[in-house]
Design a protein that fits this description.
The protein has 234 residues and is of the alpha+beta class. The protein folds into 2 domains: 3-93, 2-Layer Sandwich (Uridine Diphospho-n-acetylenolpyruvylglucosamine Reductase, domain 2); 97-225, Uridine Diphospho-n-acetylenolpyruvylglucosamine Reductase, domain 3 (2-Layer Sandwich), CATH 3.30.465.10. It has helices at 3-8, 13-20, 55-64, 116-125, 141-146, 208-225; strands at 27-33, 45-51, 71-73, 87-92, 101-104, 107-111, 128-129, 150-151, 154-155, 160-167, 172-177, 194-202, 204-205. The strands form 4 sheets. Strands 5-6-12-10-11 form a 5-stranded antiparallel β-sheet. A 4-stranded mixed β-sheet has the order 1-2-4-3, covered by helices on one side. It is globular.
Length: 234
């Protein structure tokens, strides 16, 4: 039985969810306010807000849920407006354990919760070019890849090579080649029922000084056209 059906039969929402979900090592909150987690500070609660300890914790919870239960992954909330009625189902907020960034020559593996700005800065410090455009995008890389985020002539599909996903239907996690996702202008064919876990990306070598100058120029240009010190939807 899914949560909605159980509640219709008279069950307390929180108690119903507690019965449906396994024990977790992360954090669970029921009827959890989402407004504090978004830039615009508006909107209603999540039925359940889950912050998994790690990938295994996340996979265990997803496996316990009926496939009909909707899953929403929330990053920084920088490009999201939550409706007053909130979000039904399970809202997942990936913690810092999903934000690790690893450098392997010109290849970068980043967890889905890694910030776009952090990724751009990390690549610059490592002398890896191709990520400068992310410096002005205030979100997480997991959300950015779904929308093929970009700016100033660069977009994520230019650098992403593989995406690690969890497929709810198959109950498995795996790496998938970027070519499978038919990236277009601000869109991708990543199925909604797949949860993005990490990205493998590739840049090109360049001097840190040249990369820094390009990033500074991009930020200056963005500041001329957008109020960077005000939280907007872009």
């Amino acid at each position: 039985m899914n949560a909605a059906a159980a509640i219709e039969r008279g069950g307390s929402p929180a108690l119903v969810w507690r019965d449906l979900l396994p024990e977790v090592r992360g954090r669970l909150a029921f009827d959890a306010p989402l407004a504090p987690l978004t830039w615009f500070k508006v909107g209603g609660p999540a039925d359940v807000l889950f912050q998994p300890a790690d990938e295994a914790d996340l996979v265990r919870v997803l496996a316990a849920l009926d496939p009909a239960v909707p899953i929403t992954v929330l990053g920084y909330g920088s490009n999201v407006i939550v409706r007053d009625g909130g979000i039904a189902g399970l809202v997942v907020r990936l913690p810092k354990s999903f934000a690790r960034i690893e450098i392997h020559h010109c290849r970068i593996i980043a967890g889905a919760a890694a910030g776009d700005v952090l990724l751009a800065n990390t690549a610059a410090e490592a002398g890896i070019a191709g990520f400068e455009f992310l410096r002005g995008i205030p979100g997480t890389i997991g959300g950015a890849v779904r929308s093929n985020a970009g700016a100033f002539g660069g977009e994520l599909s230019d650098v992403v090579r593989r995406i690690r996903i969890h497929d709810r239907a198959q109950g498995s996690s795996r790496w998938v080649a970027a070519e499978e996702f038919a990236f277009g202008y601000r869109k991708s064919a990543i199925p909604r029922e797949w949860v993005v876990l990490a990205l493998e990306m590739e840049g090109r070598p360049d001097s840190r000084e040249k990369i820094a100058r390009r990033m500074e120029a991009l930020i200056a240009e963005r500041e001329r056209s957008q109020p960077l010190r005000t939280r907007t939807g872009g």
